[in-house]
Amino acid sequence: MESVIDILESKFGAKRDEKAKWDACVVVPKEYLHNAVEFLKNDPSMQFDMLLDLAGIDYLTYPNHEGPRFAISYAFKCTKKPGSRVRLKVLVSEADLKVPTITDLYASANWLEREVYDQYGLVFTGHPDLRRILNHVEFVGHPLRKDYPAQKRQWLSTTDFLIPELEKRLEDKGYRIVQRSKEIMPVEEEYLEGSIRE
Amino acid sequence: MSNEAEKPNFITTSLDFLVNWGRTNSLWPFPYGTACCAIEFMSTEVGRYDLSRIGSEYVRFTPRQSDVLLVAGTISYKQAPILKRMYEQMAEPRWVIAMGACASSGGFYDCYCTVPGIDHIIPVDVYIGGCPSRPEAFFEAMFDLQKKIKDESYMKQRAERVKDQLEMIKAKTEQAKAEAREFAREKTAELKEFVAEKEQELVKKAQFWKE
Amino acid sequence: MIVLDPNGEKVNLMALNVGPTHPATHHCVRLLAALDGETIVAGVHEIGFMHRGFEKMVERGTWQQVIPYTDRLNYCSAMMNNIAFCRAVENMYGIEIPERTKVLRVIVNELSRINDHFICVAAAFQDLGGTTPFMYAFNPREEIMLIWEKLTGARLTNSFARIGGLYRDSYDGFEDDVLAACKSVEKALKDLHACLDRNRIFLDRTVGVGKISAERAISYGWTGPCLRATGVESDLRKDEPYYDYETYDWEVVVGTQGDANDRLQVRLAEIEESVKIVRQALKRLAPGPVDIVDPRIRVPAHKLAYQDMEALIGRFKSVYEGIRVPEGEYYCASECANGELGFTIVSDGSGHPYRIKVRSPSFAHVSAFNELVEGLTLADSMATLPGLNMIAGELDR
Question: For the structural domain made of A2-134, what CATH number should be given?
Fold first, then answer.
């Protein structure tokens, strides 16, 4: 693992993370994230072909923390070389919540980034479909942030429509919508009557 | 007809008994099983704890064909409108069992996404505790539900339901009767006039022939 | 809706909501599919119906209080999640658990894996329409759950592992019960294979359905039996062994096609391998302590607390303030029934976890669902979904 960290340290302005005492982790500046991940994936000596996890971290109430408030920890694994793992960390400040996306490199990044957006509010620029995934569509706020009270509940009045996303997927596959069905209208009042409202 | 149910007699109580006997011994559940309690419910369905011995021969995963909505598992706010719709789509008679701690009260998930008990959304008949509820506890709940159903009165329920309609029908019949009486009175008055006219004509003719 | 397909022809598509209230989806996945007749042309799926806030809930308790929450992640094999979490924290401490604990944890792991695979396979067959394999598969589960009841006190979500050991030692007669359960498992496997291996309907419905290539699966982050069904030999128990898994004599089960049939057959074969491991592990079970002796990590036993002042204080502080896990960040993964269950743990040195992120295997599997079903008929899509073994507790946490 040392070699991987050394190689990453020499490129992309990466630094070893002191907090990671039991596994290999480097902190990469946001701007070089995409290049670093591409390097990890495509370089013949690296070949980290699986993105396992994106963990968002909010350091608001961390004792003695200096620096940006948020961090994302990317965990990679190489299936061809068993035991080969590395983690990449990106620090994101509250003022600029944008992070470049890596959905073009790994298909798992799609949903993982959506989850980090849902729970923390970090925006991934270039993501094809950035919307909430775990919380419902009318949720306001980002619940895993340390300043969101755990018991603050939000009722949902009606389920997600999803037709616009379906049309987008059809268009991605090469279909062109010519005419919409007459029954599909924006959510109507009577549909709401059978649901709960608070 | 509403009078019959208010004063129960042998026939209505026998009918109630028959209907309740049918209902209690063939409760078909609709397992709305989202989480761990659903796995325990699956254990209740098969082999050792056999659910079909109390009448729930096969679980119907559709609200239209089932009697008991069995909510087994945590309900989140995303799932809540769907649960309400399922409850509304069920045909009467219907009952609801809240299985497990999460369905009864939210469980130990006291947070932003869990509904603190499904009785915030739909009316519940029986609550089962446990995390997850043991199959024996589930049977206890089914027996409690059966006891509850036995105390129901089909005729009274029917009377309640049709009470408004019956009153409307009564009012309408009264009105119709009154109208008919009015009509009859008019007609008799007309007839009397007609008969009186005819009489006068005959009298005139008789006088003419006399002279 | 009327669309023009890539060739320029007009096609009339219907948008059908295969909603969460579908028996095959177990109330947790919703698919909005654009159908051309019976074939799904495009689909968009939605999860989050069982989001319970695991990650927010664990931040308000102590480290030991996380263990019941981990139970409910993959509730079909609850103790594997406990052991995975405890292993991560024990690695952070750098402690070595006693031999007997290792062997017991291996036995419990493998029996839980058998439980999970049986549920997945049974639910899959029920969704395809057959109720008999469902009944066959649940029989050995009852025997194993009886063992759990005697061992831990609960049938399904038993929080058995503790950081630094186990809740308590096994009972007298544990070995005989486990051997009897193994026999029952093998009998059920025989019955299931007899039902399915040459069943025309089952083969027609699952062979060639829901295929995915190994590269695409790796890109989606698939792990566990679903990845092994595509032909990739990747098992954390062999790649990064823990608890002496490399010293047992067993093999990694790998499929060939990556279709729904392979995913189910791989699980059935893995049950056999797990039974092998359990039998070998039972022979290694030697008397000894089950917890490490360190009151800062593993709370002293109840009896000692009544006699010894230090034990009482240790117990009080452990339970009230929580054990102090060293400060730092760590990602640790274990091979659970569904795949690689990983915990990214951020500790600030206090008794309360700062952040625990669960890397759930089902999340990665289900993210590929709409790609898997595009081009299949609606019935085929319901044949691929159970093979992914999506457990809502894990999927939405």
Answer: 3.30.460.80
Q: Are A45 and A21 in contact (CB under 8 A)?
A: no
CA-nearest of C98, C271, C287, C97 to C175 is C287
CA C99 – CA C396 distance, rounded (Å): 35
Q: Which residues of chain C neighbour A103 with C-beta distances below 8 Å? A: none
Considering the segment(s) B2-152 as one domain, its CATH architecture is 3-Layer(aba) Sandwich (3.40)
Hey, which residues 19-48 in chain A have their CB within 8 Å of chain C?
A: 19-23, 25
Class assignment of domain C54-396? Answer: mainly alpha
pLDDT tens digits, one per residue of B156-186: 777 777 787 888 888 899 999 999 999 999 9
Residues of C in Cβ contact (< 8 Å) with A110: 367
Give the burial string for C48-64 (b: 16+ CB within 10 Å, else e).
bbbbbbbbbbbbebbbb
Instruction: Report CA dihedral (A163, A166, A171, A174) to the nearest 10 degrees.
Output: -140
Chain A interface disruption, residue of B79, B86, B112, B121, most A CBs within 10 A: B112
Instruction: Tell if the pTM clears 0.90, that is, is over it.
Output: no
Contacts of C53 in chain B (CB under 8 A): 109, 111-114
- Determine whether the interchain pair C60/A136 forms a contact, defined as Cβ–Cβ distance below 8 Å: no
Question: Are the Cβ atoms of C135 and B34 closer than 8 angstroms?
Answer: no
Distance separating alpha carbons of residues C151 and C169, to the nearest angstrom: 8
Model pLDDT for residues C8-56, shown as the tens digit of each residue: 788 888 888 888 888 777 888 999 898 888 899 988 999 989 999 899 9
